[in-house]
């Protein structure tokens, strides 16, 4: 990660700002694992559509939406030790950053294509969905954190040079 570290930091910051805006705009929290899985699945569906469009700005926004859904899923799942939601969102982001760092140390190879990154993210979404069906909150939270980490990696390695700072048109 040493080379291009700034892109990883920028990607994580971009996701963090998108989360802040999403929480402000949509204060409703996930009622449970099924709601969280639905939100993550819906965001992933948007990513598939965006990648098919072959417009980099669209898939950047879609990856950010997947990351935000993952953060919200991990932070909003029932947790008897949660101090509060702002702290929970921050904790999930920190955990995702640690996953990014450790994965980068273990696997130094950059992703070769958008489709490779899409495949890795899709794998995490499917695993999250399977854990949601089983009702395994602890492992679902861990998978959501890995999902966020992979979304950050996707943005850092595969996004255009400048990440767009405008809202995707409807």
TrEMBL record:
It comes from the Bacteria. This is Uncharacterized protein. The lineage of its organism: Bacteria, Bacillati, Actinomycetota, Actinomycetes, Mycobacteriales.
């Amino acid at each position: 990660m040493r080379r291009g570290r700034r892109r990883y930091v920028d990607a994580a910051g971009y996701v963090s700002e998108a989360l802040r805006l999403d929480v402000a705009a949509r204060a409703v929290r996930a009622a449970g694992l099924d709601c969280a899985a639905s939100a993550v699945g819906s965001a992933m569906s948007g990513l598939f559509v965006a990648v098919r469009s072959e417009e980099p700005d669209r898939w950047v926004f879609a990856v950010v939406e997947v990351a935000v859904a993952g953060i919200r899923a991990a932070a909003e799942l029932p947790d008897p030790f949660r101090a509060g939601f702002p702290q929970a969102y921050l904790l999930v982001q920190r955990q995702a950053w640690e996953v990014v760092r450790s994965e980068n140390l273990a696997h130094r190879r950059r992703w070769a294509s958008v489709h490779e990154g899409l495949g890795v993210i899709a794998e995490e979404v499917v695993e999250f969905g399977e854990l949601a069906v089983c009702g395994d909150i602890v492992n679902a939270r861990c998978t959501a954190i890995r999902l966020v980490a992979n979304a950050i990696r996707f943005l850092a390695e595969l996004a255009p040079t400048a990440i767009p700072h405008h809202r995707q048109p409807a």
